[in-house]
Structures are given as structure tokens and as C-alpha cells.
Amino acid sequence: MDLHLKESRVTGELVYDGHFLKVQRDTVRLPDGKNTTREYIKHPGAVVILPLFDDGTVLLERQFRYPLDQVFIEFPAGKIDPNEDPLVCAKRELQEETGYSGTDWTFLCTIHNAIAYSNEHLDIYLARGLTAGDSKLDDGEFLETFRASVAEVMTWVREGKITDVKTVIAAFWLEKIVTGQWTP
């Protein structure tokens, strides 16, 4: 198991315990026997949904993200609640954020989007058989939904109009699926 690369926790402390995120500071032993410090964000995990309509378009969101002070184009996503199954979370988040529900769900992959400073992971799901309904946004959550073709999404990635990492990775998965290069 690559023991020549493994770092081992010696001690640790929770230095910030927020409502959503926690910050951990650990002393670790390096492979050469020396000690150093690692600080990282503890995250509960999240899901990303690729809502694919029968006509080949996808459902996207526009949402303001405070840390970067701008509106981003993203696929629907949300954090996993304690002890919640990721697929249950994906179905809940799609309905809450967009009003849509799906009848055909496929797990695609798990990504780790910030491995240097967070334990966050995102499970990506493809949702088909979409039916419109009423959204139920959380208090303080504001977003717009819209449909786009996969070609448009890929153009926006190439042009830098989509920079959100989960959406970029999901877009590449989507492109491979709709062109038949990958079978989920």
C-alpha cells in the first residue's frame, strides 16, 4: 500500500467547528520519520447531478457564489446529510433545487476536488426520465435553472465560462456518454 509514501497521524485537534465545515490541524509523521503539520477542511461530502433530457439537452443552474463574488454556471449539486445515502441525496437535491425528478439514475464516479486541503468527495450521478415539478429551495438559496445542449456546455468549458470543477468534470463525462464513447 505504498508505505514509502504514507503519512501517519500523531496527534490532532479541531481548530474550527462551523455549521457546515470543520478545520482540522494534525501533526503527522512523514515517511522519513520527521514530523510536520497538516491543516485541512473536513467536509461531509456532496453529490452532483447531470440531468439529461430525452432531447439531449441538460439542466444547469446559475448561482452566485460568495467566496468568488460572482455567478457560476453549474450542474445541480448539494451536500450529503449525516447518514444519508448519496443516491437519496442526489434525488432530493435535484427536486429541491430544480423541481425535477428522474426515473433512471446511474452512478458515474466519485471525485475528490481539493485533495491538498480537504477530504471532500463528490459522487456524480446521471439522471434521466425527467419530470418537471415545483422546486423547494432552502432558505437563503437563490438560483436560476436553464437548459442547454451538450455542445453549448462544452463550448462554455473551453471558453472559460464554466470554471466550476465539478461541472467541468461532469461535462466531460456527459460528452463521452452522449457520443457513445463511454457506457455508464
UniProtKB/TrEMBL annotation:
InterPro entries: NUDIX_hydrolase-like_dom_sf (IPR015797), NUDIX_hydrolase_CS (IPR020084), NUDIX_hydrolase_dom (IPR000086). The keyword Cytoplasm does not apply. Its cofactor is Mg(2+). It catalyses: GDP-alpha-D-mannose + H2O = alpha-D-mannose 1-phosphate + GMP + 2 H(+). Residues 41-170 form the Nudix hydrolase domain. Gene3D superfamilies: Nucleoside Triphosphate Pyrophosphohydrolase. Keywords: Hydrolase. Pfam families: NUDIX (PF00293). It comes from the Bacteria. Belongs to the Nudix hydrolase family. NudK subfamily. This is GDP-mannose pyrophosphatase.
